[in-house]
Design brief:
Structural class: mainly alpha
Shape: elongated
Radius of gyration: 17 Å
Strand content: under 5%
Number of strands: 2
Helix content: 40-55%
Order of helices and strands: HHHHHHEEHHHH
Largest sheet: 2 strands, antiparallel
Number of domains: 2
Strand order of the largest sheet: 1-2
Amino acid sequence: MTDSLLHNWQKKSADHQKQYKNFLQKADKNKVLKNLPTLHEEAFEKIDCLQCANCCKNYSPRFKTPDIKRIAKLLKMKEGDFIETYLMIDEDGDYVAKSAPCPFLGADNYCSIYENRPSDCRRFPYTDEDVIVRRAQLTQKNSTFCPIVYYVLEKLMSVVG
């Protein structure tokens, strides 16, 4: 992470939460969506997720039924045993990991079930989807622990205004 924008990004993100909220409420959705693919790619070129893994350390994806079936099969476990061992139901009624960091995250920040990870993990950090504006609160929260979300938001504010 050599980009000056990324220097001290966590503090800057915390300081910019009000700006992000205003931007996400008022931004021209079409302009945002038009710029996302380029900014998403740019962010991933500058930021190595394996150096960070904050998402896996601080956040649990939802484990939907297809995810549970697929991962339980991979681990050669019965679905019920998989749920009992690794998951709990959160306040929204979704299955999430019982523990943080994610039980499938290795010390090297690699995911032991990467090819079979939940769809939420596949899609995170949603910087190439309309989720970035459609779920503004989630985007703001994600910007506090994901440098890619922070980077994309900062660039969007300067490009889209």
